[in-house]
Write a structure and sequence with these properties.
By secondary structure, this protein is of the alpha+beta class. It has 13 helices and 14 strands. It starts with a helix and ends in a 5-residue tail after the last helix. This is Beta-lactamase family protein.
């Protein structure tokens, strides 16, 4: 066994996670990792285990939108307000009264696909923004928290990207992804509606929760999660799937095989997209305690946002190279593509919250991939 195997075996034995799946490859054939680890006390995990990928849903939704750009159905910088009218009518939040009533001002800047995909549209998450959390409204009636293009906030923008895809194609996001993402990849285990597919439901594992930071993550079958009872496709968080399915997408973009996107479109994903004002706010967000757990790196590591994930734009990290693209999911999941180093990988688990113990395992996995590829500096 490798040292990574030892570490992950130990992690499932000591309760850090009931199960873990890791998959990685490089362009040169030096790396070929595909392993599942399970606790003897919990639900068995295999490579075909189906998980809630939570915010890792944002990546295929972004790819779907870029496919429509390629087909000439929309551009990255045109105003798409007419395709998402309920969202577009929202003003900019200025204050919130004690009873939850918001004071808003009229929006001036256009809402574009580029801004929605890169979290610079003004759409926030109520659990991350204090003022937004006080607004007495449903998630889909919340005002914007800044003028589009003039800030950065992790939020619901990519849910709206999914709505744009549905409006322009006449297909649900579920059906669109089956035809245009999972189909071309030969991936059959990803869906927004697992209850409609018994084969997928049978391989789904429970979500696990850690109440004591030093204690075990405990499986809670039937616990409410972000996908419970979903009747619509939420492009920002609603997907369930296997790690091999997800990895096929990641690997396709590493080797640039054009199964999903033309080379020139795929290249855009790995280029900085933010205005200086938005980039400044991104850096503030990445230094918050929760994000330092999910993506720990020294403050001097320069970052931007690409068309689909966090983008490394400096050369100061221990192993991430300039142009590496990555993101994760709240249930302790992670993906990365580093075209310069020629490596990519996915890490899958079902542990909430995604804490320092889980991040240690993700870091060890990524470092091992770079090490096996001979790319660890």
């Amino acid at each position: 066994m490798t040292s990574l195997d030892d570490l992950l075996e130990s992690a499932v034995k000591d309760g850090t996670a009931p199960g873990i799946v890791v998959i990685a490859k490089d362009k040169d054939g030096k790396v070929d990792i595909a392993e599942a680890f399970s606790s003897e006390k919990g639900t068995p995990y295999s490579l075909d285990t189906v998980m809630e990928v939570s915010s890792m849903t944002k990546f295929p939704t972004s790819i779907a939108a870029l496919q429509l750009v390629e087909r000439g159905l929309v551009t990255l910088d045109e105003d798409v307000s007419h395709l998402i009218p309920s969202f577009a009518k929202q003003g900019i939040l200025e204050s919130v009264a004690d009873d939850g009533t918001p004071t808003v001002r009229e929006r001036q800047n256009p809402i574009t696909l580029r801004r929605l995909i890169t979290h610079s549209s003004g759409a926030g998450y109520s659990f991350l923004d204090e003022k937004l959390g006080k607004v007495r409204a449903s998630q889909f009636e919340l005002p914007l928290i800044f003028e589009p293009g003039e800030g950065w906030a992790y939020g619901t923008g990519i849910d709206r990207v999914g709505h744009v895809v549905e409006k322009l194609t006449g297909l649900s996001l579920e059906e669109y992804m089956k035809q245009n993402i999972w189909g071309p990849l030969g991936a059959e285990n990803s869906t927004f509606f697992p209850d409609q597919d018994p084969a997928i439901t049978a391989r789904r594992v429970p979500m696990s929760f850690r109440e004591d930071p030093n204690g075990p993550a405990v499986e809670k079958p039937g616990a409410q999660t972000v996908t419970t009872g979903a009747k619509l496709c939420f492009g920002g968080h609603g997907l369930l799937g296997s790690m091999p399915d997800y990895f096929k997408m990641v690997y396709s973009l590493l080797v640039d095989d054009e199964k999903l996107l033309k080379k020139e479109t795929a290249a855009l994903m790995f280029q900085p997209q933010l205005t200086p004002a938005s980039r400044k706010e991104l850096h503030k967000f990445m230094e918050t305690p929760n994000m330092k757990l999910m993506f720990p790196s020294p403050p001097h590591v320069d970052r931007d946002y690409g068309l689909g994930g966090l983008l490394i734009v400096g050369d100061e990290h221990d192993f991430w190279r300039k142009g590496a693209l990555m993101w994760g999911g709240a249930a302790s999941l992670n993906w990365f593509i580093d075209r310069d180093a020629g490596v990519c990988g996915v890490f899958g688990a079902q542990v909430q919250p995604s804490d320092a113990r889980m991040r240690k395992l993700i870091d060890a996995f990524q470092a091992d991939v770079y090490r096996e590829a001979g790319k660890l500096t």
